[in-house]
Amino acid sequence: MSRNPLERDSFIERDARRRAIALLDPGSFRELLDPFEQLASPWLPRQGIVAQADDGAVVARGTLDGRSAVVLAIEGAFQGGSMGEVSGAKIAGALELAVEDNRAGIPTRAVIVFETGGVRLQEANLGLAAIAEIHAAICALREYGPVIGITAGTVGCFGGMSIAAGLCSYLLMTREARLGLNGPQVIEQEAGIEEYDSGNRPFIWSLSGGEQRAATGLADLCIEDDSVAIREQVLAWLRAGVTRQARSEQVRHYLERLACADTTRQASAENARALYAARNPA
Q: For a tag on the chain, would you pick the N or C end, based on fewer CB atoms within 10 A?
């Protein structure tokens, strides 16, 4: 039985740290490289930007369903959740340590909370290198068990981190979230407002919002904004294990779908759903 909406604990309204706490078993949260370590970006102050002591990335160890786990949460309120040298290294390093745990016979699962516009432009090459390391670590870790991704807030998940989300064994979104390789403003800048109006919010969410991404199979589930429901789904996926081929391994299917896309007309949510629902090339 669903709970009264007024009793729901919004996951979106939580910051990165509180999201990690909500996901882990009660009382098991332990933060690594917390703000008291003062591990901030050395590059932002040089450009007149105030750095943040945790560089916008929270690394939390604890348990999920009583089993060892790491939760990595990106803070969308800091620099749009952009990934720089420090934040990227924190996430990549934590995933790599989880891989080492599994190789040593210590099953350790990972959950990544994406709230990011992608690479931090002020640290472009350093951020891109870190994101590539995150990609490699996710692929290595999912050989031992499911890696679960969550994108819940209105910042969404874009750029190289959208590839990281696509590499996850399971991806959960809320209706309010968005997922895309390029952000609306970038698409408008490159293709023109006639192709993609970044100011048309209903249009944007109809194509890249959580409900649409789940309907087209680019996310596994669109769920209500409720911390309890999100945690329960994460636990259900961890218990189920990996039961299907990863999206990133379904190359032939997605190439066939893209080959069938009609680029002579304006994209729409309905056209996209029909395109991805088809099993064989049209």
A: N
